Amino acid sequence: MSNETSKNWMIYGAYGYTGELVVKEAIAQQRQPVLAGRNEAKTKAVAEKYNLPYKAFNADDAGNHLQDIDILINCAGPFDQTAEQLMGACIKHNAHYFDISGEIPVYEAAHDRHDQAKKAGAVLCPGVGFDIVPTDTLAALLARELPKATHLELAFNFGSLPSQGTARTAIVNIGVGGLIRSEGELKPVGLGHSIRKIPFPNGPQTSVSFPWGDVFSAYHSTGIPNTIVYCAMPAALCWGQKLTNPIRGFLARPFMQKLLLGLMEKFLDAGPDENTRATAGTEFWGRAKAPDGREVSATLTAQPLPCSRLCLTESLHPIALRPCSIHRPGMLSQHAARRPPTTPRSLHKRWGR
Question: pTM of the full predicted structure?
Fold first, then answer.
């Protein structure tokens, strides 16, 4: 293809909450993506709604459906059931792969396929929806300000209830527990491993350690060997995680999963409404520490909708589509650094003990 505007897109999982938002944004960019998904009836309904072509297939069969596709955007979670299969199909057909996952195993899968993707001239870039884009950018900023840092803390505060997709991923993975990075290695920890107050821009919030994608990606973005990520939650939920940690194996059993997923669908919306998407902001905080006592911290705010739009646009930029194999989401936002979705609010430095 001569340029990125002439490339053929496929949006997999187009009938999901976020998938349809991506479809709308693609149309706004005057593109005509092929819609795809596992459920033919739901995929067809969305395709007819927007007058777009569609295909229905399971991720395991993706290799037979990407012959004319240049760029695939995977919006179908849980991503441990779709990402690896779709990455493999993209490599097979020399197509570029992007997804909106925040799941660490997906980032590991992309990293493990570095050599294959590079040989195929394909880009693999998970996590471009919103998830770790602001935090990956924040981590890179802190590492630049304190190159000798050995410890990194990141935190986020959505300020609202999670979407069904995010909650579903958390429930499905409840038996796995938490995860941090220690001395360069991923280290399993219990749920509620660390609970503390985080000084977000609009005030301190109780937060709990959380196996967010940055636990994996920040090391590759910054080289900092120790990372922990926090998510702001009501104090009762933070301590509830710690208290239920001894029975997380029980909560992972099929009948408990069915119960928890049913409660999730009853009490949570599919996702925020249009007004909330347009106006809500997420707060982020980060701190890097060096062995000599020096530290640097920073905060930023980001609006998910414009940030996600930016990532979708920048994913197709010629620089982003260079055949360099693995991309980190922060690379896309750094490439668009002059644009406003992630806005640093403060930067604080403390030198010495």
Answer: 0.81
- Please say if the pLDDT value at position 75 is more than 90: yes
The pLDDT-based confidence of 17 (bands split at 50, 70, 90) is confident
Distances (CA, A) of 223 to 146, 289, 293: 12, 13, 18
Question: Tokens in use for 77?
Answer: 């979670």
Separation of alpha carbons 208 and 156, rounded Å: 10
Q: What share of the chain is helix, strand, coil (3-state, %, to 5)?
A: 40, 25, 35
Q: Which residues contact 227 (CB under 8 A, 6 or more apart)?
A: 151, 152, 153, 154, 180, 181, 214, 215, 218, 219
**Do 154 and 254 meet the contact criterion of CB atoms below 8 Å apart?**
no
Q: What is the tens place of the pLDDT at every residue in 186-210? A: 999 999 999 999 999 889 999 999 9
Q: If 0-12 CB within 10 Å is exposed, 13-18 middle and 19+ buried, where does residue 215 land? A: buried
Q: In what side-by-side order are the strands of the sheet with 9-12?
A: 54-56, 34-37, 9-12, 71-74, 96-99, 124-125
- Judge whether 285 and 154 are in contact, CB under 8 Å: yes
Which of 79, 103, 109, 97 is closest to 13 using CA atoms?
79
Domains of the chain, first to last: 4-126 (3.40.50.720), 133-304 (3.30.360.10)
